[in-house]
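Q: Here's a chain of 552 amino acids. Please give me its 3D structure as tokens.
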Amino acid sequence: MLLNPAEADTTLTARVAIVGSGPAGLALGLMLAEAGVDVVVLESGLTKSSSFAASLSTAADAPENDALPESLGGRRFGGLSWTWGGRCVPYDPIDFTPRPGAEVPGWPISYAEALQTASQAADFLDIGAADFRSADETLNGGAIRTAIERWSAEPRLTKRHNRALRANRGLKIQLGASCTAINIDGHGHVLSLTAKTIAGRTISVRADFFVVAAGGIENARLLLWAFERLPTHARSRWLGHGYMGHLSGHIARVSLPPDIVTALDYFVAPEGCFARRRFVVDPNIAKAERLLNIVFHIDNPTIRDPEHGSPGLSASALALSTPGIRSLLFSRQMRDVLVGDAPTTRELGAHLANIARAPLEAVRFGARGFLGRVRKPVRPGVIDTRFAGALSLGFYAEQLADHASYVELSGATDALGMPRVKIVRRAGETEVASVLRAHELLEQHLWALGADHFGYFASPQARAQGVVDQSGDGVHQIGLTRMGRTTTDSVVDANARVHGIANLFVAGSAVFPTSGQANPTFMIVCQALRLGHHLIRQISRDTRAAQGNNIP
């Protein structure tokens, strides 16, 4: 049930209040409402993107190579599911062990506990089954094996769950209402939330339990602001620290036999969603080599560079650089990743020459890509091997938790009076060395699979810098309110409850102690649903206790 900001009540009450309607907030809110729990969700944005809402996320200072918070489109009903590509992968068992040389003692829950809601998450995210094993043993060997990633058939979650979100009267979603304060008493109990609407109203939200699910940076921002206004209450030294994302990019290219390329391309899984096989380092080898988690996939050559010779890729580059067309195809953040700045005059001429050489091929490639974006299931991408020559090898690697990577409040404020944040995130030598060594292991494996060519884009001396140059993220905001056993090593406990605050919880990748190799959305939903089960049990216990106290 959506509530109009222009008609917002000054007071909202529910059993559970949730801040944010992204994947975590939606999954948790729907689960609780379907269990008969009254829920109110505060959503800063509207059903469509709003420049005012986006401006509230602007940081006072941020890393140059990170995506800007205001460009991500997170302040909207549905959150980042509108710009998320749909990739779903779980964490791995290795992610739950202490990392070599890192300030992470491990997760306070087991791998099995973290994935106990995997089937529910798979259904919510529209990926069929929570099965990520690869059945193609011909791709495995030595230090390298393969695993499956699944892609949501409908990644825009408010579209997939539209009827349930609008029809369930136990779930109230207040649009255009930004949380500006978590009001905690001197005994470690949240009394209410304060929110301000785009219409200028102030709302007080009262509940028994409160869940902050506004995204990693916003979660940290709200908690930092709450503790700053409560100076007598001790807070963890890790609040706002240990900021992680992923190292991702391309430093090598490969030419593979057609049957291997086909096996690594997107395919429709039996359950009806798209899937893709990826190369992973065998966990025993990774442990022996002291490597961090990493995965690889084949990709088109860099779209912007016309040297690929592909009419289809050149047509895509020009489309993604053309105002009025590009906004219909991909989000701003994805366009920046694919093409960056507009092509130079030289690049434009070379792209046009590629298209002129085989215009029909360019049309066919474009049609496949466009139809893949509008049909169900949504096709994540198209691999062009006819003209591409050597394909790029994409990598997706773990970043370690470092106390020196952090988010802190600044002296600047947004339009609603909330302090803006300063963001510092950096990749260390351990991560870079791990990426380089993993490429060496993969190179050996690809030669064994019959590769015709394997090469790097830079000299051995420049490769490390190439990894560093591609270490920007800002989309995956992990670890800022991490999970653990005590305030010494964490911000929240194993049930995602903030240490020392009886009824305040955090949902999202901010609670993950490690980043792994995984796009975090699948695990975000798993964690949100796990929190939902915990809250339902707690509410049931409280209800039984209250009924017992009322017996004469």
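Q: Can you summarize the key feature?
A: The chain has a mean pLDDT of 89.
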